[in-house]
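Aim 2 progress update. The chain analyzed this quarter is reproduced below.
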Amino acid sequence: MVSMALGSDRESRHVHVLIVGSGFSGLGMAIRLAQQGVRDYLVLERGNDVGGTWRDNTYPGAACDVPSQLYSYSFALNPDWSRSFSKQPEIQRYIQGVADRYGVRDKHIFDCEMTEARWDSDTAHWQVHTSKGTFTADILISAVGALCEPNLPDIKGINTFQGKVFHSARWDHEADLTGKRVAVIGTGASAIQIVPSIAPKVARLDLYQRTAPWLLPRNDRPYTSAERFVFEHVPGVQRLYRAGIYAAREAQVIGLAKFPPAMLVLETIARAKLRSQVRDSRLREKVTPNFRIGCKRMLVSNDYYPALGRDNVDVVTDGIAEIRAGSIVTTDGAEREVDAIVVATGFHVTDSPAYETITGRDGRTLAEVFEAEGQQGYKGSAIAGYPNLFFLLGPNVGLGHTSIVYMIESQIAYIADAVATIDRRGLRTVEVRKDVQDSFNRTLQGKLVRSVWNTGGCASWYLDKYGNNTTLWPDFTFRFRKLLEKFDVPAYETTTRSRDIEAGAESKVVAG
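Predicted structure tokens:
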């Protein structure tokens, strides 16, 4: 349907607004533009469907660590969640259902990967090259999520391994792990879900741990039919329930960003969980974190620790020296035979390959700018030197305690107002001022200095190579929403189309 409406896949075409990516952020942006009457827009999605992270991550046990009621659009509450913490298939069905309900699928071009986006100052357009031809756009919106580019470890010999090896985000469903000797590398959010899911069926599981994570109880349970009935038919109940979860989660900001010693409350809960679920003292010592809770991402699980105590599971804390054709050798010289390797080492967040594909006004890619100056932006939504380019989930929008969908919706409102302002005022270009961006980031990094992420004694993917936290928002999320309530034109350098027209007319007169 899309190809018929848009012509040949290889045809160059112009569009007013071009969105790249259709996870929670890109899909939400498309819906908002449609609601405010913007018709000339397209969404480019490299996958074969909407969903982003929830389309791609299909590993065993994949589920969300934010309560279902909060992990959804505020404009599309779902009364039919089956349980308090949803699993991946249900979240993906929800996202697909929202796309269908709001009728934006026909604005998508699927299996279309952006390979380059370059700003053209002469035309004031973005030139966008993709696997399905070239596009030009007045406004470009990047909705490329942070958790989309798998981070593969640089381990000696990994390419010589003769068994199955795959990243958790690219799960090989044709690989039958039953009765096999399996190695899982990493102990992050994906690994703590994978290990309990596969441990009962594999012959042996070696878990290679570099850093032990903090775990909190996962208060997960199925919703009753009566609860789902009330959510659907009693006005206000579901929103009130959602607000209660939001408030409870937001209270964690006090310890995370304001007064780190307050994290002792959660740490006490986590330590009690560790003592009760890990009886073996040697194993408990291995899996006890050596940093303050919250410094790295806090994880929730009820079955991870019990899985580690199984007879066929071993936690390996020595580093990996090399991988051979059928084994893994650790730095202590031990060699463990293995049939399959699951790499659960996270994603490229502060060094996303997507940054290498976007070239700004001065001819530098985002990767080059971030390499020279560090990763920073303005309100997580714009970057100096990149006119008419907006970001969803840009620098310092991430969270360590609650639903990222709340932040996404805040940005959607801001960018939608930017598009409306551009159209209403006849603006040709908008580009955030460098001095405004620098001031914003000085304030932001000042807040982060006293946060648990900077003082908790750990190294994490929250920090860039300069040691700056370029990933997380260091305050209450409702303050972020207030900050992005309205598009602040004075923070941007702007040019207007009317002046361009007048200048063109004047030049013609002089020439004549």
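Residues 149 and 353 are 7 Å apart (CA to CA). The longest helix spans residues 404-425. These observations will guide the mutagenesis experiments scheduled for the next reporting period.
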